[in-house]
Every structure is written in structure tokens, then in C-alpha cells.
Amino acid sequence: MDTQQSLPTPTSKGFFERFSSTVAKATGSSAAFIIAMLTVIAWAVSGPFFHYSEDWQLVINTGTTIVTFLMVFLIQKAQNKDSMSVQLKLNELIAATKGASNRLVSVENLTEEELLVLQKHYEMMAEITRQASDLRQSHSVEEAIKDTAEKLEDESESGHVL
Question: What's the half-sphere exposure (Cβ side, CA atoms, 13 Å) at 150?
Fold first, then answer.
């Protein structure tokens, strides 16, 4: 079975998904910022006409609170989708790349503590690579560590130790 045929098409988005993506993109535009700034300026200029009353202040406070409250959910929805898309693309690259470590596929499902352990592991691997080999000659950290291990093994067999 061809896996490409079973993948959903981009047009199969639901209403809320399309809406949240569209609103998130629109509100991140320069035009949206200008509209928001003009709204605040218009509100500030109208202050003297309303004698800077409590009702005048309540209008901007209520409006911004409602917009902020709703935007948090819309932006989070769009961000979750984008994040998942990036993770899937990275997983595909890891799975398709010869020599890549498949241990990192679905790494986003690990706990923060597990991620810190992995981070320390890769920092250690990078440090070993930096110390023991020319970075321009290796194609991956794991390849450089393998080369270093082989060199150390050869040296120990011949009686030469670093």
C-alpha cells in the first residue's frame, strides 16, 4: 500500500482550524498592528470628549481583555498545529537519513527530565568530537565518536595511549 495515498489532503481542514490559522496570520501582520495602534490613538484622542470617565477607560480595558483572551486560544491552536507539522517533518528527515539516530523520533513526547538527560548526552558527544577529531572531516557526531573510539582502540593495541 502506498503511504502517500493514505495521507490527508491539505483541503481537509476543519472550520476552526482554517479560522484559527487565518486569524493568527492576519493578526501577526503589519496591517493588524497599525489597526490596533490607530484604535488606541482614537481611544486616547476621544478622552477629552468623554471627560476621561470611568466608562471611557472601561471601553479600552474591556475590549483589550476580550481580544487578548480569545487570541490566546486561537494563536495556541495555530501554534500547536505548526509545531506538530515541524515535528513530523523532522521525524521524516531522521527516518529517511542514512546514519541518523532514530532515537530522536518522537522526542517531543519525553519528559523535561528525559530531555535534559539527552541534552547532556549530546553535549558530551559534541565535546568528545571537538577534542578528538577534526569537525571538517566528520559528517556526524556519532561518526566522529566512532572514529575516535577506533583510534583509541588502535592506539591501545599498539601500546600507544593518549
Answer: 7
Looking at per-residue pLDDT, the higher value among 78 and 40 belongs to 40
1 compared with 94, residue with greater pLDDT: 94
Residue showing cell 471601553: 59
| pTM of the predicted model as reported, rounded to 2 decimal places | 0.55
Q: Give alpha helix (H) positions in the chain.
A: 3-6, 15-27, 30-46, 54-96, 112-132, 141-158
Given a contact cutoff of 8 angstroms between Cβ atoms, the answer to whether 126 and 143 are in contact is no
**Structural contact between residues 129 and 135, judged by C-beta atoms closer than 8 angstroms:** yes
Report d(CA 98, CA 143) in Å as an integer: 12
Taking the C-alpha atoms of residue 162 and residue 152, their distance in angstroms, rounded to an integer, is 8
CA distances (Å), origin 110, targets 104, 115, 116 = 10, 6, 10
Q: What is the DSSP string of 124-156?
A: HHHHHHHHHS-TTT-SSHHHHHHHHHHHHHHHH
Whether the CB-CB separation of 132 and 149 falls below 8 Å is answered with: no
- The pLDDT, as a whole number, for residue 21 is 81
